[in-house]
Design goal:
Chain lengths: ~425, ~325
């Protein structure tokens, strides 16, 4: 029985904060033990394989804490709020938590360190990702993973329905999805994320390709424009009309990916950095027949997002910053970046992208699709605000309304009003 | 021990000297009642009073982003805002009450039925008891994950079973209106055994004589249950309601494991606990989150008080 935990969920945080605030400071400057917190990701798996090499060469002992995205976020909320020093290196999402963390001064200023190290060559990182890890002209993180949205599809099903090439436009995508679905009972034409907040990032490419954005050039909310309304209606309509039966409105990438890899859907729009889940025979029933294509063009062309999804930062309260930087130098260095990219995780280093070896292991069509997306991509996949989680829920509401067959245009109007209020509050 | 239970009425000078007559021992002896209670009091202060008090304080501020950031004292503004919020707060209150009411009703009725069945010895009794208590020992998050798989609309077993009897697939957890009832079902599945356990303990302690007397008087099975067993068992039933009721009000794990943050895209299963969690972990609105928690805390204290008051009435 869990008595006494009446206020459990959030009060535990408060207690942890209090306790952690008293307990900090047990590792002196330059402790030999480095504590790093990483997310569950192919990047992390690759890194762990190479860790012994780093430990040997640096003489440090690395303690890895590995968590899912949400749990990682919660962990940071608790520990960083308390000013805890027991995280040295943190893997974080520049577009999700970057602004919040930088504003709260959780992230150490790395500007001098990035400048002083010529072998690391910070100038080698692509400017877009670097901009996302820079706050008020200070470098607070080093981008390690970039991603672009691409179209995953089933070669065999397309062939069976008489299509010789994947769709080039969103109209073609709709037509092909409908035909494949009709030809294959039990297989959905299209699947994508459906959760209100989770879908926002994957919806963003549709929004841009229809010619819209979350915020207009003047900084005003713009999810009620004609373009945005069309994008909502298209994304939601595809899932409603050609999505799996009894579609859930809670799906994030893992659920949507599962439907695709179980062979239950023909098309799937998702980040390319997750492609190993679809091509690994141990995880996917369709590993042999999955194909990749550039994001289909809408009225405004093919405009997928092209974003730095994860970066490494140093906890400002860490008492082991020198060693933390050593770790970042190694993990985000040229050598490891090449290793990572070859193992399927696209990075942010221009020199690695220029090296043909880096993408030699990729499926050929994925490498091509990625090149296209990198060229015409948009640098954000969610509203660029401080309280991203809240903003995502606001602009995501019309998506789930469209999926469930409600009036998505009216919902977009309501969302725009709420989003403008949110932006006004944040500007205060 | 005797020095504790029988107060020493002699004057301090008349008492025999302590083995170590230092000032500390004398002080400790004089304050022993506080000394012995101190660890427990410190525990309560650090782990219960301090967090509740600090949450109370936060609820009066506009703390957001980081609790270490500067925040302003804004009085009861958060309370006014929250109580006027018909978008998230009141629906969450309603869901919390509905969830608790429904699961409590089913758990008590089913728990009573099962406890009565298990009351009298029968062959294989031990195995049946173990089987019935199994859900209780599983962790709620694992239970949530398990049912999420079973209720998956496309590959789940629940729709498979329905198709055998000719019923079409149901949305279960993914339906906007079916999600809350489905989570209620999961809660009933998991926690009915606890009610069985409590009621069975109560039944076992009842004496056989009133039953035998009623039997001789020619009472039917229903009459014996309604007029003999139930009244005698009532104090135990109230205990079961009290324990389960408070637990059900603050259910979090099953809801979070099945529907994730915010209780689903339409906040279908967002109860007060889930709402407060989202406010602090997703929105970093510590002030508002604390306000919701304090209001929730008061609701629970109110329910607890009402139930214990009723219990006393019954035992009289």
């Amino acid at each position: 029985m869990r008595r006494r935990s009446i206020l459990g969920t959030s009060l535990a945080v408060v207690v942890a904060m209090g306790v952690a605030a008293c307990g900090g400071g047990d590792s002196g400057e330059g402790s030999d033990t480095l504590r790093i917190t990483l997310v569950n990701h192919v990047w992390t798996e690759n890194l762990k394989k190479a860790l012994p090499e780093f430990e040997k060469q640096s003489g440090l002992k690395v303690e890895v804490t590995q968590l899912g995205e949400d749990q990682l976020s919660d962990q940071y909320n608790v520990k960083l709020n308390a000013g805890s020093s027991d995280i040295d290196v943190m893997m974080y999402r520049p577009l999700q938590e970057g602004k919040l963390f930088a504003k709260n001064k959780y992230l150490a200023d790395l500007t001098d360190r990035t400048k002083s190290d010529s072998a690391f060559e910070f100038g080698d990182f692509q400017p877009g990702p670097v901009q996302a890890t820079t706050y008020e002209d200070k470098v607070v993180g080093v981008p390690i993973i970039t991603e672009q949205e691409v179209l995953y599809y089933r070669k065999d099903l397309l062939e069976k329905s008489g299509f010789t090439a994947p769709p080039k436009t969103l109209d073609e995508l709709k037509a092909q999805a409908a035909k494949v679905e009709a030809d294959n009972p039990g297989v959905a034409g299209f699947v994508a994320r459906t959760g209100k907040a989770a879908a926002v990032t994957q919806f963003s490419s549709f929004l841009y390709s229809f010619g819209g954005d979350f915020v207009d050039a003047g900084g005003k909310a713009s999810v009620d424009t004609e373009q945005a309304k069309q994008a909502y209606a298209y994304y939601g309509g595809m899932l409603k009309d050609h999505g799996p039966e009894n579609i859930s409105t809670d799906m994030s990438w893992s659920e949507a990916m599962a439907i695709f890899t179980q062979g239950k859907a023909a098309f799937y729009t998702e980040a390319n950095s997750l492609y190993k889940n679809a091509t690994d025979p141990a995880k996917s029933k369709v590993a042999d027949t999955v194909g990749f294509a550039a994001f289909p063009a809408g009225p405004a062309g093919s405009k997928p997002y092209n974003i730095p999804s994860w970066a490494l930062g140093v906890n400002d309260a860490s008492e082991n910053k020198d060693n933390a930087w050593k770790f970042i130098q190694w993990a985000a260095g040229k050598e490891q970046s090449l290793v990572q990219q070859k193992a399927g995780v696209p990075g942010a280093r221009a020199s690695v992208w220029a090296n043909p070896e880096a993408t030699s292991t990729y499926p050929k069509d994925l490498a091509e699709a990625t090149t296209v997306s990198t060229a015409n991509g948009v640098g954000h996949d969610r509203p660029l605000v401080v309280k991203v989680a809240e903003a995502r829920e606001i602009v995501g509401q019309p998506i789930v309304d469209a999926i469930t067959g409600k009036d998505s245009a009216a919902s977009a109007d309501a969302a725009n009003e709420a989003f403008q209020k949110f932006l006004d509050d944040e500007a205060k | 021990m005797s020095t504790v239970t029988t107060p020493d009425t002699r004057s301090p000078e008349a008492r025999p000297a302590l083995p170590d007559g230092s000032a500390w021992s004398r002080w400790a002896n004089a304050h022993r009642k506080w000394l012995f209670a101190a660890p427990a009091m410190a525990f309560v202060a650090v782990l219960i009073v301090f967090p509740v008090a600090w949450t109370g304080y936060l609820s009066l501020t506009d703390a957001e982003g980081s609790v270490r950031a500067e925040s302003e004292f804004i009085g009861f503004q958060n309370y006014l805002d929250v109580l006027a919020d018909t978008d998230r707060f009141w629906p969450a209150v309603w869901r919390t009450v509905a969830f608790t009411g429904v699961v409590l009703l089913f758990e008590i009725v089913l728990g009573m039925a099962i406890a009565l069945l298990l009351w009298r010895p029968f062959r294989g009794e031990r195995w049946v008891r173990v089987a019935i208590l199994l859900p209780l020992v599983a962790t709620p998050v694992a239970v949530g994950m398990m049912w999420r798989l079973i209720f998956d609309p496309n590959i789940g077993m629940a729709n498979q079973v329905l198709s055998w009897v000719g019923i079409g697939p149901q949305p279960w957890l993914s339906g906007q209106h079916s999600a809350l009832p489905t989570t209620m079902f999961i809660d009933v599945w998991q926690w009915t055994p606890m009610v069985v356990l409590i009621l069975l303990a109560g039944l076992t302690s009842l004496s056989d004589e009133p039953q035998e007397a009623a039997l001789i008087d020619g009472a039917s099975t229903w009459q014996r249950f309604r007029h003999v067993t139930l009244p005698l068992l009532m104090p135990t039933v109230v205990v079961a309601i009290l324990l389960r009721g408070i637990d059900a009000l603050k259910t979090f794990d099953i809801l979070y494991a099945t529907k994730g943050r915010g209780g689903g895209s339409f906040h279908e299963v967002e109860t007060l606990n889930v709402y407060a969690y989202g406010l602090s972990f997703d929105y970093n609105d510590y002030g508002v989150s604390s306000t919701v928690l304090i209001i929730f805390f008061l609701i629970i204290i109110g329910v607890m008080w009402a139930l214990t008051y009723r219990k006393k009435g019954l035992q009289r």
